[in-house]
Amino acid sequence: MASVPISEDSRFGLRRQARLTTPLNLSSGARLGPVDIAYETYGAMNADKSNVILICHALTGDQYVASDHPVTGKPGWWWRLVGVGKPVDPARHFIVCSNVIGSCMGSSGPASIDPATGDPHAMRFPVLTIADMVRAQAALLDHLGVERLSAVIGGSMGGMQALTWPTLFPDRVESCIVIASTARHSAQNIAFHEVGRQAIMADPHWRGGDYYADGQVPSAGLAVARMAAHITYLSEAGLTEKFGRRLQGRPENPNGAKTFGFDADFQVESYLRHQGLSFVERFDANSYLYITRAMDYYDIADDHGGSLAKAFTATKARFCLVSFDTDWLYPTAESRIIVHALNASGAQASFVELSSPFGHDAFLLECPELNRVVDGFLKGGRA
Amino acid sequence: MSETLRPDLALIARTVRQGARVLDVGCGDGALMAALRDNAQVDARGLEIDGSNVAAAVGRGLSVVQGDADTDLGYYPDASFDYAILSQTLQTTRRPDLVVEELLRIGGQAFVSFPNFAHWRGRISLLWGGRMPVTRLLPDTWYDTLNIHHVTVDDFRALVKERGWTIDGQWFLKGDRETTHANANLFAEHAVFLLRK
Question: Catalytic positions (chain A) (predicted)?
Fold first, then answer.
């Protein structure tokens, strides 16, 4: 069934960009403007605009949630959940996904040009919070003529944005799905991020963030940051199953051998190096600094006098939380804290811990139960 | 949508007021909640320990939280529901008395249903066989049963009296049918109590 053809309206479709001229008031007190937002939309808004779903992406994600990535050519990062016949379906929903501010896929960030100087912002870009990312999304929705969200959905950092939405805009959100996420960044989360940032800033090419002019980017530092972070996305059992202690095969020895040197002897080393190297092709090191910083500052209770329950008293939104049993980055205990606060505030909340061997990454991978939960939750709103 | 409810659940479903706010503790896959929502416009919330049951319940559009009756009821505010329901779960909790106290704090009234351990079949099994009863309602062997606090109708009545709770209703089941109150401790396979503080 063909969806209603989208009008000539250039605001809707793939690979869109909006320039929002009204400056954003940021958590830090600074103002940012004009603000560029890169985004995609799928499907068509219905007559009463009641079918809008906002998808929020994770730390290194982007707006290409359900279409091929322009740099890597890979399918959309959440194609398992978003697409025709999926729980979030362009045949039924009007789906919006935007690149967070601070990132580097077309939205304003440290790599974008400061119109005042004609040079990249670099580290002169204001420090952001998750709430600032949400404010930018709200401004984009204003631009698109969307008043209310039928649902806001995100995993990991996307879950932080999804959970922040009803606290900032209680009347604009009908339901909220938070997957493999948390209401605050833990000391361990902050510690891992600090390792990544120090790796970037220790790279001699970083030069205080002003590396854009000559193309000598701090790729070694960024790759190490990605390698360290990537470990936190997996599970010990998953790594053991995938690599164990197996050695990397070489042309002269397909089964691999110890070299008694420091090449990538082990398959897991080779895998991580590949993850690091391919990441620097598509991501800006300064954006990595800014976005990890925003996540570290994230603590919803802290913004509401120390009470997480208070954050949700103004909203009538329904909530659905999902955690994964092998996720040690945002473990189930973090989701339970949110659930208890929602119960205390009387909100309609669902929560389930799903089983997966894949650690934090599980939310992006094959998990039929996740699709069933999301589908049932979204349809439950229409009963 | 016309799913056949377990008899104790059907009985509870018939008794709950239209449009009430209900917390179903140990809601399983949400069969009772769905019936209450669809037939009586009840605002139902659930608590369930088993993840696949929760996924099934959320998959049918119900608000269910994965958690443990022994530890998670404390997070619900006082008097936040008209009814708190504990069906076939009492005997699996670590402290059944404290769980019922919590139900009566959270809900204006509480339904508590449980298999009656003093049913004559169980007595005979123990008396003549000298073995822990394995029956239709208590199908597990002693070592793998989730029922760690077996209880009889008279035990429960004694607890109610000791704590000063009020019984607003009581029903007894034999097979799928209601049976009389007379000698319920001997003849009822299953009891449902409606309590108030």
Answer: 156, 327, 360
